[in-house]
Amino acid sequence: MTGGRLPLVLASASPRRLDLLARIGVIPDRVLPTDIDETPRKAELPRQLAARLAAEKAAAAAAAAPDALVLAADTVVGVGRRILPKPDTESEARRCLELLSGRRHQVTTGLVLLAPGGKRLQRLVASAVTFQRLTPAQMEDYLASGEWRGKAGGYAIQGRAEAFVRFLSGSHSNVVGLPLFETAQLLRGVGWLRP
After folding, report:
1. Sheet strands (E) in 59-134
2. H-helix or E-strand containing 165?
3. R_g over Cα of the chain
4. Is the distance from CB of 58 to CB of 72 less than 8 angstroms?
5. Active site residues
6. Residue 81's domain spans which residues?
7. pLDDT tens for each residue of 99-119
8. pLDDT score of 2
9. Given a cut of 80, is residue 146 above it in pLDDT?
């Protein structure tokens, strides 16, 4: 226990999630990345995938830290029913940008907080984002930056890609990877943050 509170474990390898938590004064006691298969199931929709992966990450981390609060999140970018990858190659990233160019897409984060004894709180947060129509030069410059690597949908809104965003409805921090309003609500709900 830290000052009467349960220790908080962040089940994520994402430095962006740590940075976002720090913005609201939350410093996890431990960071415990999980290694789960993130492959979408047949006919799985973006919202379903985000919820399932967040739950699986939370369960995996809770097994390793049973006496802690475990916070897990997973962010998925979808165009309609289609789930965009976290690209490893430039050609994958190019396909993502071509799909996003001039279109609205949905960014969904599944959020799960597990407490010892099995108490589970969860949220599903969606933001709508519309990119401008990207010129070939914009696409080439963004691909050359390498910023897309490993990012859901092949872009980072907190970086150069923010200049492509013509419209955003919903939580900006959700698009970065952790919806802060809902995260704070969950932590208040278990008494970890003061009301």
Report:
1. 69-79, 82-83, 104-114, 120-131
2. strand 165-169
3. 17
4. yes
5. 74
6. 8-189
7. 999 999 999 999 999 999 889
8. 45
9. yes
Cα(139)–Cα(142) distance, rounded to whole angstroms? Answer: 5
**Token pair 């985000």 in the structure block, residue:** 50
Q: Quick one: DSSP state of residue 89?
A: S
Q: Is the pTM here over 0.85, yes or no?
A: yes
The reply to whether 153 falls in a domain is yes
- Write out the two tokens for 29: 């006691």
The CA–CA distances, whole Å, from 191 to 30, 58, 144, 184 equal 18, 19, 45, 10
Please state the domain count of the chain: 1
Report if residue 195 sits inside a domain.
no
Long-range contacts of 140-144 (CB under 8 A, 24+ apart): 142/97, 143/90, 143/93, 143/94, 143/97
SS3 (DSSP) at 117:
coil
CB 29 within 8 A of CB 70: no
**What is the CATH number for 64?**
3.90.950.10
Residue 181 lies in a domain: yes
Residue 1: inside a domain: no
Question: Whose structure tokens read 């390793």?
Answer: 64
**CA triple 152-48-58, angle to 5 deg:** 75
